[in-house]
């Protein structure tokens, strides 16, 4: 009974925290905008604490946040609306990373988890969230080009952003049978990759990949390899705009990153 009561309390408390992040309101022009509450940052940090103690097998907190559609209703609007508030955007981005991590095959409710991941992936096709997130690494990459090195905080930031885009790209599309008439769910990967090319995400990932053999990016190399292999296998790689990175460049970079892991000749 104690465990059950604690679970109920957690749900109520978590719901209260999520409800106090912010809300959509009508501004003076009659447009609907997202307005954060005063304790929004603290709320995001509290949600992260919940996620960190989530049961890895049942993932009850992940499932609950997914059912509330937190990524679409709050996290992405926060990122888009308050892109000038670095701490707030970072806190929201960290939560999105946690909520899009690859499935653990040993956990339960895999079908439900996958469905929620697909819904989160679809949310990234609305607005220009990817462009805002990728802009976070512009300054660190500028310092890298200028000084040839990065601060530890810069490295962690780049790793966070690369992890997020890896998470999103690797979420599987819904099968036609499971889509139940929602055909857009069956082509999320291609649609997302097109969005990534349009919003310079792939361009930035290519810049990072060019330094994949340097010590501060060595942990990103496996993630970059996953990303470029997904691009290589996607039909979207043949439909990218001429102004963006070209498929041949993407494939070449994938092979370059892969070479970082090649076994040395005996």
TrEMBL record:
<protein>
    <recommendedName>
        <fullName>Timeless N-terminal domain-containing protein</fullName>
    </recommendedName>
</protein>
<feature type="domain" description="Timeless N-terminal">
    <location>
        <begin position="33"/>
        <end position="240"/>
    </location>
</feature>
<dbReference type="InterPro" id="IPR044998">
    <property type="entry name" value="Timeless"/>
</dbReference>
<dbReference type="GO" id="GO:0000076">
    <property type="term" value="P:DNA replication checkpoint signaling"/>
</dbReference>
<dbReference type="GO" id="GO:0031298">
    <property type="term" value="C:replication fork protection complex"/>
</dbReference>
<keyword id="KW-0131">Cell cycle</keyword>
<dbReference type="GO" id="GO:0003677">
    <property type="term" value="F:DNA binding"/>
</dbReference>
<dbReference type="GO" id="GO:0043111">
    <property type="term" value="P:replication fork arrest"/>
</dbReference>
<dbReference type="Pfam" id="PF04821">
    <property type="entry name" value="TIMELESS"/>
</dbReference>
<dbReference type="InterPro" id="IPR006906">
    <property type="entry name" value="Timeless_N"/>
</dbReference>
<dbReference type="GO" id="GO:0006281">
    <property type="term" value="P:DNA repair"/>
</dbReference>
<keyword id="KW-0539">Nucleus</keyword>
């Amino acid at each position: 009974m104690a465990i059950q009561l604690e679970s109920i309390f957690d749900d109520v408390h978590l719901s209260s925290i999520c409800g106090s992040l912010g809300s959509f309101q009508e501004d003076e022009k009659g447009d609907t905008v997202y307005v954060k509450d005063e304790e929004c940052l603290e709320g995001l940090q509290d949600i992260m604490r919940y996620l960190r103690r989530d049961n890895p097998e049942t993932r009850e907190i992940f499932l609950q946040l997914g059912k509330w559609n937190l990524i679409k209703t709050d996290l992405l609007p926060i990122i888009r609306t308050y892109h000038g508030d670095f701490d707030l955007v970072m806190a929201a981005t960290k939560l999105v990373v946690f909520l899009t991590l690859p499935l653990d095959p040993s956990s339960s409710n895999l079908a439900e988890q996958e469905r929620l991941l697909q819904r989160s992936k679809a949310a990234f096709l609305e607005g220009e969230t990817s462009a805002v997130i990728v802009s976070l690494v512009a300054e660190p990459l500028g310092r890298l080009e200028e000084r040839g090195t990065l601060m530890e905080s810069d490295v962690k930031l780049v790793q966070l952003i690369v992890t997020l885009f890896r998470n999103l790209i690797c979420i599987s599309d819904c099968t036609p049978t499971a889509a139940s008439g929602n055909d857009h769910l069956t082509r999320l990967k291609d649609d997302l990759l097109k969005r990534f090319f349009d919003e310079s995400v792939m361009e930035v990932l290519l810049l990072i990949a060019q330094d994949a053999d340097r010590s501060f990016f060595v942990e990103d190399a496996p993630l970059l390899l996953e990303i470029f292999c997904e691009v290589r296998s996607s039909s979207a790689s043949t439909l990218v705009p001429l102004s963006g990175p070209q498929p041949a460049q993407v494939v070449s970079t994938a092979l370059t990153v892969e070479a970082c892991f090649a076994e040395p000749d005996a």
